[in-house]
Write a structure and sequence with these properties.
Elements (H helix, E strand, L loop, with lengths): L3 H12 L8 H9 L10 E7 L2 E7 L8 E5 L13 H11 L2 E5 L11 H15 L7 E6 L1 H16 L6 E5 L11 H4 L9 H12 L21 E6 L5 H13 L4 E6 L14 H25 L1
Parallel strand pairs: 3-4, 3-5, 5-6, 6-7, 7-8
Antiparallel strand pairs: 1-2, 2-4
Length: 300
């Protein structure tokens, strides 16, 4: 049985007006309407990182070099730095880190691998600023979670030194939509459905849906850094996480898979109302602190 807080949010999500056959512009405006700014004690700063618009989130007292490279969600079609300011601030605060959010190019104007190229460029910017790879974690939600893995694959294949860790929140890693949960969880997921994902997948990857830079589930995952995967059991994308965890572990990757009971897609966005949202963020912070500390110790 859902808690009163969870039920309130579910009712709100289910009752939210949704235009029929919305345009890309309507979808983008709808997500921007949900944007929440960073808390007043968080200082944000715009920066251009190797040609890519980005935004620093600066937490008072954070360890100077510990950095989260954050990749927002939105199906590669919608979403922005602005829509994710609050959740990025919460994650950075919990990790005692700075965060660099990336305004990567969106589809359908810019198809795969544009988003990956931008994320790679932003990561290299951090390295060029003298930040050790061992102090960096790449994180993202939904499409940004898939983009996190795709970016790690691209960096590995290019021979870059990889970051200490990757964090994937409700990641979308299979643009083919072949997980059983796409059907079995459809009636309980208030946010994500197969029809919308299919449209966004076509916008981003066209017919090349199994391209590992679009659907990293189909890539070779060996050699990646430790991964934290968080997913709700009430998500159509549940099986994206479970299958990714299984395949990555088989390739020798250290994977922590957390399945949060009754949680919906990227419940972290409602951390101010939903205890489980902040709890999940606190787990991310703990994971990032542990992995960056471990990497520093190993190189000492």
């Amino acid at each position: 049985m859902a808690s009163p807080e969870l039920q309130t949010i579910l009712d709100m999500l289910k009752s939210a007006p949704r235009p029929e056959n919305p345009t890309v512009e309507q979808q983008r405006a709808g997500m921007e309407a949900f944007a929440r700014p960073a808390p007043e004690d968080i200082v944000t700063e715009a920066v251009v990182a190797n040609g890519i618009p980005c935004e620093w989130t600066n937490v008072v007292g954070a360890r100077p070099e510990r950095t989260i490279l954050y990749l927002h969600g939105g199906g590669y079609v919608i979403g922005s730095i602005g829509t994710h300011q609050e959740v990025v601030s919460r994650i950075a605060r919990s990790a005692n880190a700075r965060a660099l959010a990336v305004e990567y190019r969106l589809a359908p104007e810019h198809r795969c691998p544009a988003a990956v190229e931008d994320a790679v460029a932003a990561y290299r910017y951090l390295r060029e600023q003298g930040i050790p790879a061992s102090e960096i974690a790449i994180a993202g939600d939904s499409a940004g979670g898939g983009l996190t893995v795709a970016t790690l694959l691209a960096l590995r294949d290019a021979g870059d030194e990889l970051p200490a860790a990757g964090v994937c929140i409700s990641p979308w890693v299979d643009l083919c939509g072949e997980g059983e949960s796409m059907v079995t969880k459809a009636s309980v997921d208030p946010m994500v459905g197969k029809e919308g994902l299919t449209q966004m997948a076509a916008h981003y990857a066209g017919e090349d849906l199994r391209n590992p830079l679009a659907s990293p589930l189909y890539g070779e995952l060996g050699g990646l850094p430790p991964l934290l995967l968080q997913v709700g059991t009430a998500e159509t994308l549940l099986d994206d996480s479970t299958r990714l965890a299984e395949k990555a572990r088989a390739a020798g990757v250290d994977v922590t898979l957390e399945e949060w009971e009754d949680m919906f897609h990227v419940w972290h966005f409602f951390a101010g109302m939903l205890p489980e949202g902040q709890q999940a963020i606190d787990r991310i912070g703990e994971f990032v602190r542990q992995q960056t500390a471990r990497a520093v110790t190993a190189t000492a």
